[in-house]
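Title: Prediction job returns without error message
Component: structure pipeline
Severity: low
Priority: P3
Assignee: unassigned

Description:
Job completed but the reporter wants confirmation the result is attached to the right record. Sequence as submitted:
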Amino acid sequence: MITRIKINGFKSLLQTELLFGPFTCIAGENAVGKSNLFDAIIFLSKLAEGNYTIQQAAKSLRSENQKHSNIKDIFFRSGSHYFNKMSFEIDMIVSEKAEDDLGQLAEATITSLQYKLELKLNENDEERESIEIIEESLTPIKITDAREQLSVRGKKEWVNSILKGRRGIKTPFISTKDGRIKLHQDMGKNGNGRSGKGRSTEYIAEKMPRTLLSTVTSESPTAFLARHEMRNWVMLQLEPGALRQPDSIFEVKNAKISANGYHVPATLYRLLNEKKERDIFQLLTNKVKELVSAVDEISVEKDEKRDLLTLQIRFKDGLSLPAHSLSDGTLRFLALAIIREDSEHGGLICLEEPENGIHPDKIKEMVQLLEDVATEIEYEVDEDNPLRQVIINTHSPAVVNAVSTNSLYIASVKEMYMDWLKKKVQFTFFKVDKNTWKAEPNSMNTIVNGDIFPYVKPPGRAADKRGKMTVAETFTYEQF
């Protein structure tokens, strides 16, 4: 879970600092750069995977107004001038335990960590990496400091359940000095139940094609758990064609809904077998009824001859339809409802424009579902309440009206004069409501009437009542 992120020099993000709780909504007009935050998160996730070099991760990202991807496109640009450096600083909470790719268990020394990465663009030196690491570090955040930061976001029981580890730890897990990146010994426990025994290793930064973090295993438990956390940052792009696909029965054991929407039937069938004490079909049916009241039953049909599983929905009039006959919005809503019930689907979920395919009168139900997907801050984290985070972006007034002011950022374009360019540059700027916990470190970045006016709920419609102040309740037309 990301609690704070600072980005400088990536795409349109300049001196950007954002604080996050379990659920965040970023609103803004088209082309203001709000999607670039998602690109930054996915870029960092790919760098942690181990399957991408830095150059490959850069080229995999979408390029604005470009037919072909270019690694320069991820660096901040003003006109024809590119910045040649970018930096990231991420405060995060990681799982206390997780298995590596070989099934070895790692246990973190501490779960509150800060990761830093600074990169440099080399345009004219073919003998060096095109994007070079200047600094990479992973350091502990003191439990007391992390507790203070988190206490404004959740209850004591929730905070205590996610902050684990030894007090007084100061030694970094990864550090950089004089152009050399070092992986330090870690006293966390590895798969053998003993302290991590990986020896300290050192590398020359300018020769590294990928991040050091992407190479660690359970022999360096805390660094591995940071890597595990970042690998679980996903961009959900639920494609109708993928959501409609049947699954083989042999895919059930390790099934999980993919980022593009495959494996809905297999995941649902796995949950049916795992959660025998709960009627998973009935739970999902009740949830989908909030969107489509005519739904009577959700099920998975098993074709014994072909070993295929197919999603089915029966309606109150007796009509039964397979997944390929269902609407895009219904399928997306159901997939998110399944993810909510699946503790195996943890980490950070990014989702663009959740209102797509949803009737305007049902936007509130979609937003409520997405908030439910995120970890519940009233209770401790466990199998039924995984440490899961959701960030959405939107330009829909209906979505903005349905979220809490605590959860909202407004993205816009701002100008700043740069001495070395001798001109003003435009960059993406994020604002918060001055009365929320996010406003204190961002006191100059507060929402004013002109920012929120396009999203304010028109008079004559009932406000959303869920025990919190939504945008619709906080701001009214009478204020303008």
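Comment from assignee: result matches the submitted record. The radius of gyration is 23 Å.
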